[in-house]
C-alpha cells in the first residue's frame, strides 16, 4: 500500500493539478497522468459535462455497453441496452430472451407507481391533539408546496396522500409525516425531497410557533424520500407447457427439468444463502438496464432487497407455479426508475439507450428492467440445474483470461477454437498459450 499525503482543498484544485498531486505520490507518475488522460472524451465539452456529474473527477471509467436482442415484452420485440462488466450476463439475457421469444415472450404488468417519503420527528407533545388538527395542518402543508408541485400536477402527478403515523411502539417519542407521491416519468428524488423539506418547516412552525401546543418543541430529525417503494411495483412472467421443455437439455426430460427448476426456486425461498445469490442474478439484469438508462441502481437494489425480506425473512424474488402441465414463472419487483430528469437526458449514452428503447415511459422501463432481470434469472437457474454455471461462464471469461496473458489476435482465434471442446480454466489457458508459443499445435 502506498500511503498518500493528507490534503485539504483537493476539490478546489484544477483537474490537471489533481492529477499532478496524485502522480507525484506514485511511482511512474508521468505515465499515470497520460494513462488517465487517455480515457478522457475527445470532445472537451462532453468531458466537461462528465467532470461535472461528480466531484474530483479525474477521468472516465469504462464499462462495456451491449444489447440483448429479441426481447419480446407483451408481444413487442425490443433490443435492450445493458451496461455490465461481468462477461456472461448479456449473453445469458440474450439467450433467455431468444428462448422465450419463441414461446410467446415475456408478459409484464404494472401493479402501481406510487412513491413515498417521510418527515421523521421526535416529539413529547400531545399526539391526539395533533391528529385532531391534522386536516388544518395538511391544508397548510399542501399550500406551501404549490410552487414545487404545480409542474408535476400539470403532468398528472403530484402529492397523493399525507398521513401522520405514530411510531412510538418502535422508538420512544418517534412519529412520521408520511407522504405518497406520483412523480410520473421522473424517478422523482429531488421533487420528493424538496416537498418533504418544505413539509418539515411547515410542521415545525405549526407545532412550535403557532401557540397551539405547549411543552417541549417538536424536533425534525430528517426529511427524505424512501427507497423502499412497495407501491411502485411491476409483475413479469413467462409461461408455457411443461412438455415445451423437451429439448432443454440432453440429460433431462421436460418433467425432470421442471422438477429441478421448481426445487431450485423453492430452495431460494427458504434459504437466505441461496436467496441472496438467486436475487443477485436478477439484479445482474435489472442493474445493467438501470445503468444503461442513467438511473440509480443502488436505489433499485436497496428496494429490491428490502422487498425480498418483506415478510421478515429474506427470500427469492421469483415465484414458480407448476399446475395442470403448465409452467408459470414470475418476478414481482418494486422498481423506482425514471425516463426524464436526472442523468437520463444529460448522459449521451443514457439518452441513446432510451432512444433505442423507443423513449419509454417510466412504467414501460420498469417492465423492461424486470423482464431482463427475469431473463437473467431464468438463464442462471436453467444452467445451474443442467450443465452447471461454469461451462458458460468460463467460455465467456476466456477472452478476459487471454487478455491477461496478452494473447495476440491469432492466438485468440486458436484458443477460442480449441476451448470449444476443452474445459476453460486459468491454468488450461496458460498451458495452451505456452504450448502454441513454443511451436506446438494443440488439438
Ligand atoms: C452470477 O453473477 C449470478 C448467478 O450466481 C445467479 C444464480 O446463482 O442464480 C449465476
Automatic annotation (TrEMBL):
Keywords carried by this UniProt record: Oxidoreductase
GO molecular function: hydroxymethylglutaryl-CoA reductase (NADPH) activity
Single GO biological process annotation from the record: coenzyme A metabolic process
InterPro entries reported in the protein's UniProt record: HMG_CoA_Rdtase, HMG_CoA_Rdtase_bac-typ, HMG_CoA_Rdtase_cat_sf, HMG_CoA_Rdtase_NAD(P)-bd_sf, HMG_CoA_Rdtase_sub-bd_dom_sf
Keyword Nucleotidyltransferase found: no
Record bears the keyword Oxidoreductase: yes
PROSITE patterns on file: HMG_COA_REDUCTASE_4 (PS50065)
Pfam family, one: HMG-CoA_red
PANTHER family given in the database record: 3-HYDROXY-3-METHYLGLUTARYL-COENZYME A REDUCTASE (PTHR10572:SF24)
Family assignment from sequence similarity: Belongs to the HMG-CoA reductase family.
Name listed for the protein in its UniProt record: 3-hydroxy-3-methylglutaryl-coenzyme A reductase
Organism: Lentimicrobium saccharophilum
Species classification: Bacteria, Pseudomonadati, Bacteroidota, Bacteroidia, Bacteroidales
